[in-house]
Amino acid sequence: xxxxxxxxxxxxxxxxxxxxxxxxxxxxxxxxxxxxxxxxxxxxxxxxxxxxxxxxxxxxxxxxxxxxxxxxxxxxxxxxxxxxxxxxxxxxxxxxxxxxxxxxxxxxxxxxxxxxxx
Length: 118
What we know:
By secondary structure, the chain is mostly beta strands. 0% of the residues lie in helices and 46% in strands. The protein is globular, with a radius of gyration of 14 Å. The chain starts with a strand and ends with a strand.
């Protein structure tokens, strides 16, 4: 199973920017359902943030639309999440996900902490 590892989490001031990276141990195109970023804030449910399909199409939750950009590098097998105009409510552990159609188990990374605070 392809393993995922996130990096880039840090403390950021409100209004600032940060880029997260997810490195896969194998081809990211092996995830037939594409890849995504999720986040989980303390005491809250895990929520979907953004997705990138194998055809390159992207989707975003409304609260990050226009501020976050998901992208991928199929040669380096990485997926990035560029975050701009960060808000305190973006504070969470951000997790990388790779999924499959047909019932095969998805892959999750361990997560990376993003804290938005002055």
